[in-house]
Amino acid sequence: MASTSNFPQTTASTGLRRGKDDENKDLEEALTRFDTAAYRDWPNEAAFDGLTEERGPIEISATGNIPSWVAGSLYRTGPGLYKIEDTPKGTYYTSHWFDGLAQTHRFDIIPDDSGKVSVFYSSLRQSEEMTAHIKKTGERKFFSFGQRQDPCLGLYSKMMATWRAASAPPGDKWIENVNVVVNPNYPGLDSASGNIIDKIAQSPGARAAQDAGVPFPSSGHRLPANVWLSSDNSNLKQMDPKTLEPIGFTDQTVLHPSLRGPLSCAHAQRDPLTGDLFNFNQDFGRLASYRVFAVRAATGKTEILATISGSGLKAAYIHSFFMTKSYLVLVIPSSHLGWGGIRIPWERNIVDAIEPFHHSKKMQWIVVDRIGGKGVVGRGESPAGFFFHSVNAYEDGEAGKIVCDMLDYKSLDVIHKMYYDVILQKDGADRKFWGDKERARGAMASLSRYELTIGAGKKKGTVAVERLFGIPAPHAGELPTINPLYATRKSRYVYSLPYRGKSTAMDGLVKTDMVTREAIFWDNPHGHSPGEAIFVPRPGADIESEEGEDDGVLLTVVLDGHKKTSYLLCLDAKTMGEVGRAEIGFAVGAGFHGAHIQASA
Asked: Which range of residues forms the domain containing residue 506?
């Protein structure tokens, strides 16, 4: 692994190195920390509770040597508020972290003529209308990811609640909470752009009008043409790239009338050359149906690439999928949805609608041609498992060979470690989960490489699926990122957030070498919890050389749990040493995903 830094660093030390021979030892040590509750002296609650918004932009104190070529805007989104007081039913508590009420953040990184960087911060709550509804009624509207229902709710009341949610007119759904992925320059949605501006102004959650003259640094700066937020359903919410105000809402039928299913993939894929967007829409019924589609960046037109259905196909919760230069790979994990997906409206959330995990429920792999119009070109299967995040995929020389990297699990337990009462150690929930060592083991990720061979069997369309290896936690973790210039190309380095047993949430940042299996950890101080890292490539880096893949920096928002304040951290992606930071002065919520928009040259 290359280790020579291209940037002056603010700390003498670089990352902490661990090798392949340390993998099992480090996993067992992490599990022991969880088992003995060693995480209890790691403060992380400020990233989940008591969060505020700062409409800004305000300048935050930058130190060190953040490179001037990082100039641009970093958008991030995720949960903000999780509890609402003084409702008719008392304090309302959000159950699952994925359902925290959306808050979006933007960091504007502005260099002066000498190259010295200034950083500005702003944030805005995206679900004030949902908050107002909860404040008024004491309950959440529509369906959620994992909100627990009132255990005292009788059968009739449950049926009525289900009917009210299912029968809500589409025009009411604009208050939906959408909080997972930032999608800049989303094609094909012009007809829905700005369609809720008037509703926002008239809603109970309306805020004071944003000052159109808000100061905004303009030195070589550009913002995306549009920004849409997405989640694990088919809804999309638009925000103003400058003010962050919610201004538009739609679902995937605006792209194509056949995309009428309620679920989709939070993580669409984008062709790195054309900007074309790819995703799927999942519909329910007697048979599950997946419609894989492309939205052309040049025209905004949507094409259905494949409609996949059949008696052996299961409705499932799927958070991401794969793309190569020629194919899309849809992986249906063992997170099957009850009653063909119809159980979601009955339970009013996805988690309770997922069937119990069983090893007989194998993962299904479906390969779709994305450039030649051939539709489904092969299917295969692998042992039962689950994943949230694909990492990268590429075609490996020989025709019909595809390599897919993902963070996978041997059970569904990972879903349950992300309930707020586990994270915040409420009512012993942390001990019920992490005190069960085998359950804890099932909730630890592996960074796994799979090889697919199209046409491997005698039957036409057969895909052989082989798991080549897996690198266990904590040498890998969640919310992975790579150098974006290597999307659909052979890649080596993955950056992710591991669970090391020091916190009830992600407590580190690690660079994993998929060739040598070396792991380099950022040497973070006790109580400093990073968020998803965003890789910013260095302009002029040679991506054809071995040195080019990790030639850049990582941007991550870190909570100092002791001070209850956050900072934007810039790390050298080669050495994992600190390059610079910008202190925010208050806590920023532990978020999900972000996007960096490069300033114009």
From this structure: 31-54+79-207+217-598
